[in-house]
Amino acid sequence: MRIKINKITKEMIGKELTVKGWVRSVRDQKAFAFIIINDGSSVEGIQVVMNSDLPSFQEILAKLNTGASVAIEGTIVASPGTQEFELKASKIEIIGECPEDYPLQKKRHTFEYLRTIAHLRPRTNTFGAVARVRHAMAMATHKFFDEKGFKYVHTPVITASDCEGAGEQFQVIIEPAKKDPSKEFFGKPTFLTVSGQLEGETYACAISDIYTFGPTFRAENSNTPRHLAEFWMIEPEMAFADLKDDMVCAESYIKFCVAYALEHCKKDLEFFDQHIEKGLIERLKHVLTSDFARVPYTEAVEILQKSGKKFDYPVEWGNDLQTEHEKYLVDIHFKKPTIVYNYPKSLKPFYMHVNDDGKTVAAMDVLVSGVGEIIGGSQRESRLDILEERMKAQGLDPQDLWWYSDLRRYGTVPHAGFGLGFERLIQFVTGMENIRDVIPFPRTPGHAEF
Ligand code: ATP
Ligand code: MN
After folding, report:
1. For the range 141-145, what are the long-range contacts, defined as Cβ-Cβ under 8 Å and sequence gap of 24 or more?
2. Which one of 164, 213, 216, 226 would you pick to mutate in the ligand 1 pocket, going by the greatest count of ligand atoms within 8 A of its CB?
3. With CB atoms counted within 10 Å of each terminal CB, which end of the chain scores lower, N or C?
4. Per-domain residue ranges for the chain?
5. pLDDT tens, residue by residue, 28-52
6. CATH homologous superfamily of 5-107
7. 220 lines ligand 1 (CB under 6 A)
8. What's the CATH class of domain 121-437?
9. Of ligand 1's atoms, which has the minimum distance to the CA of residue 233?
10. Which tens digits make up the pLDDT trace of 244-291?
11. Atom 18 (ligand 1): residue with closest C-alpha?
C-alpha cells in the first residue's frame, strides 16, 4: 500500500511500505545509491537506499534521472546519516522516465525563470510549500468563519455593477454583440467582478453574518509585486455591526490564520524562514502577541508629517497613503500591524458610512509588514438618502443599483465588512516577495499563458 512521505515516522522503523513520487537527486556510491524521492506531501523528501545487489541495479540507476516518477517498495530503517530514518529499497519501479532536457535540474532557479514554466514549478520545494500553505490558509478561513457562525455565500463572477467605481473592470463580450448591441447576451454590458461585496451585503442583510471567498478581477495596469489581474478575495459582511466590530473581526481573522499556519505548516514555515525570509517565524509569533495599532487617518498623517522623513510622495491630508508611508507606520512607528481608519470621503467608494464630521468615512485598512495593505474594509452607509447622494456625487446612477438601495429601503441595519486579498495573506505568511509566486497561475498585464 502506498503511503504519503509526510506520514512516515520513526515509529515505523522495521515496517515494509511503498512510496511513490518523483526523483529529486541521485548519488551513486558504487556499492549502493542514495535517491531522494519527493511526493509533494512535505517539503522534505525521503532518502532511499538502493543496494547494488538489487536486480537490474545498473539498468534502473541509468533511468533514475531527476524528475522521473517511481514506485519504491522497501523497509524503513534507522539512518546513519543526518535524518532519523531512510527507506531501504527492495524493489524500484520506474513509472515515467524523465529525459535530460527536464528544465528542473537540481540547481537553483530564479523565480522569474520559474514563472516561464508555471506548469513545472509546483515540483520545486518553494512552490510545493506555497501550495501547501495556500491550502492551509483556505482551510483556516473556512474554519474561522464557520466557527463564528458566518455563512459561506457564493457571489457571481459576472456582474453588471461596478463596486469600486475604479474603472478597472474586464468586460464580458460575446462575438455577435460586438457588431449588434441588441445581441448582448445578458441584455446589457457585463463585467468580471472586482468584488463580491454588494451582492454579499444582500445576504448579510438577511442571514446576518456571511463571507465570500472567490476570484476577483481587476485590470490593474500597475506592475507591482502586490497586484494581480486575477486574485482571490475573502469578504466577510456582518449585520448589526459597526467599524469597531469590523476591526475586531479583521484582527482576529488574521491572527487565526497565522496561528493556524504555525500549527499546521511547521516544516514549510521553517523552510521559508531558512530560504526566503530570515526571522519569518519570529515575525509571525510577534503578530500573534501584538494588539494591532489603531490610528485615525488624520493622526497617521500627522505622525508622517512629524517623522522628519523625506518621502517621495507628499504627505497631506486628503492624499492616499503610499507604500512608503505604510512602511513607515508599520515598520518604524508602530512596529506591528496597524489599522488606519476614518479616511477622507473623497478617497473612498460611495458605499462607505459618512462620519458625523461630514469629511471622513468609516473606512479601515489593515497594514502589515512587507505586504502593506492586506485588508480594506468599512462600515457601510445604511441611510438611503446619504447613500444616493454619494452615488450621484461619484457619477453613479442610483437607478443602476436600485436593488442595493432597497437594502436600505426595507429594514436597513448598520453593517460592516472587509475584503482580504488571499494572495497578500499568503505573502504575509510565507515571506514571498512577489505576488506572482503565491498563486498557481498568475495573471498580470501581458501574461496569461498556462
Ligand atoms: P491597493 O491600494 O493595494 O490597490 P485596494 O485599495 O484597491 O488595494 P480594496 O479594493 O480595498 O484594495 O480590496 C481589498 C483587498 O484586496 C486589498 O486590501 C488587497 O489585499 C486585495 N487586493 C486589491 N487589489 C488587488 C490586486 N490587484 N491583486 C491582489 N490583491 C489585491
Ligand atoms: Mn487597488
Report:
1. 141/211, 141/213, 141/234, 141/253, 141/257, 141/422, 142/213, 143/256, 143/260, 144/252, 144/253, 144/256, 144/257, 145/209, 145/211, 145/236, 145/253
2. 226
3. N
4. 5-107, 121-437
5. 998 999 999 999 999 999 999 999 9
6. Nucleic acid-binding proteins (2.40.50.140)
7. yes
8. alpha beta
9. 16
10. 999 999 999 999 999 999 999 999 999 999 999 999 999 999 999 999
11. 375
